[in-house]
Amino acid sequence: MSTARTDSERVELANTALYEAMERGDTAAMERLWLKDPGTDVSCVHPGWPVLRGRSEVLRSYALIMASTDYIQFFLTDVEVSVAGDTALVTCTENILSGGPAETEGELGPLVGQLVVATNVFRRSGDEWKVWSHHGSPVLAGREDEEDDDSAEPTA
């Protein structure tokens, strides 16, 4: 029985590592996860932000977010991985729980939940998969099938 991971599994692990680095506020891990190829610029769109281009600008944005967020946790759902040669696409829903600044020293601030749909593009770099692009968009409306379920409820 082989224990070698498929490309899809390795991409999914790299995708998970991206979110785990955010949760830990680990800028060094974040730097290792992003593609470092002189001929290829990375890009990132955080929800509500303009497009960020270039490795230093993207990594600076993550450092800023991590420094200003006391607590963040991602629960990824609807994860789909597609690999084509040396490029991979991951789509997922980020179910985010984050905490703002605490009013009292040593306490966690109020928790806020948010849904973001994300597309993460990875490129193979040697034997590793590196983030090439991230795009996150807030979910502002429910899905059509959820709305249909509400309308199917009996009325009195």
Automatic annotation (TrEMBL):
Recorded hits in Pfam families, A to Z, give: SnoaL_3 (PF13474)
Task: Locate the compositionally biased regions of type Acidic residues.
Answer: 144-156
What is the name attached to this protein's record? DUF4440 domain-containing protein
The record's section on Gene3D superfamilies has: 3.10.450.50
Which residues lie within the region annotated Disordered? 137-156
Q: Give start and end of each SnoaL-like domain.
A: 11-139
